[in-house]
TrEMBL record:
It comes from the Eukaryota. It holds the Pfam family UDPGT. Belongs to the UDP-glycosyltransferase family. The keyword Transferase applies. This is Glycosyltransferase. The keyword Transferase applies. Keywords: Glycosyltransferase, Transferase. GO terms for molecular function: UDP-glucosyltransferase activity. Its EC number is 2.4.1.-. The lineage of its organism: Eukaryota, Viridiplantae, Streptophyta, Embryophyta, Tracheophyta.
Amino acid sequence: MKKDTVVLYPAPGMGHIISTVELGKLILRHSPPNSITISILITTGPYETPAITSYITRISHTYPRSITFHRFPHLSVDTHDCSRSRAAIKFDIILLNTLHHFSHSLLHIAQTDHHIRALVIDLFCTSAFPIAAQLRIPTYYFYTSGASALAAFLYLPKIGEQVDKSFKDLASTYLHFPGLPKLLASRLPEPVLDRNDPAYGDFIYFCSHLSKADGVIVNTFEDLEPIPVRAIADGCCVAEAPTPPVYYIGPIIVDSIDEEVEKKHECLVWLDEQPNGSVLFLCFGSRGSFSKAQVREIAIGLERSEQRFLWVVRAPPRNTNLKQVSEYEDKDFDLNKVLPDGFVERTKGRGLVVKEWAPQVEVLNHKAVGGFVSHCGWNSTLEALVAGVPMIAWPLYAEQHLNRAALVEDMKMAIGVEMEEDEFVSGSELERRVRELMASEKGREMRERSIEMRERALKAWEEQGSTTFLPKADK
Ligand SMILES: O=c1ccn([C@@H]2O[C@H](COP(=O)(O)OP(=O)(O)O[C@H]3O[C@H](CO)[C@@H](O)[C@H](O)[C@H]3O)[C@@H](O)[C@H]2O)c(=O)[nH]1
């Protein structure tokens, strides 16, 4: 008899793949033993970094019979076309891969004795939607960010119709999304800032398909984001179609069991020697990075704050307009050339700088860590919540400004940094916020609130697992 499988199609990038794998594990945990398998489709090429390759290898070894990755054969694509934005190129690559490989992969899965019970796609993989509809496969979205950003994206096609200028040209205009604090138009994700960029049309197309799916699965829990959850449930976010069923199955975060541990990371050894709750951790997701001038200001702020810190530093992006390193940038940079002269010596004992990557989940759960400066990536946000660590919110790109607004204004789980017009943050501003979080009454209250929210997150975790979103198995 054919075995049921759920096919997951994440967007490329660690932030999307990790949480999709965790969703797969959740489905397995809540299904009768050996009743179901998980098939995960992976876009290769420039997006499959060494970190992703070794992560996939580890998961394949740990779940040899229940989770199978199907890597799309490599397609050679010009990623340096200067006439197209980065987002437009990325969306094109996903589209091309979908058109070339998606149906073949489904066919292959079906031929290897599987019945495809459902397809779960990432927002950026919407190009698979019409193909799945033709094949009559029940199709769900897995939304890897929170309910706040989902409410905004459900509503975005409507806002797009209401304005006749590019959002980037509405610099001082605030947008009002149902269930969200107001947001400056220029702080929307970069693919939608310019109407003339093909990425704009793509993004609106993706968002308008959310309401056509059999359901949207969201990595959050209702207690964390009650206001946008209510706005979505009340049908305020979708203009012309009924709101699809939305399933809040979070918080799902990376399982540190799946991390590669050859030997304890030097930063964990260093944390062991620090007093409880004394260290501020600074880390900006899998790709966040800063210009040399901004790195210098962060160093000034940390030095003047006199607080203990653990700071993950990445090479400044080659394209200085971006706040992220691209997948193909050289990771082998000289840390000493990026940090200000003498910074490491002057902060020795109370500060540690780590190049490129730190085991974030373990760091956040270390008893020495008392605060987190984050880019508000959703995985980082949930990891901090589950660890009970309050944050300083410093959004960089994607939907992170939406997350920041929710974290600072609704959840009161983070202090926001004030940005200058070009989004630069001065050393003195950072110093002020660091002292506020680590050494003031407000910081102490936030730590208490974070511990309360941790309890609620753990409760949601225990109750989690409703995989009721899956269509019934064929008997
Ligand atoms: O030194 C590091 C840096 C990152 N991480 C891990 O990498 C993941 C990063 O995920 P996330 O915080 O979501 O950031 P991004 O990698 O930037 O994720 C992308 O995907 C997210 C989910 O859709 C979005 O919320 C973000 O805006 C988008 O940039 C987390 O699990 C971190 O624990 C580490 O373990 N060590």
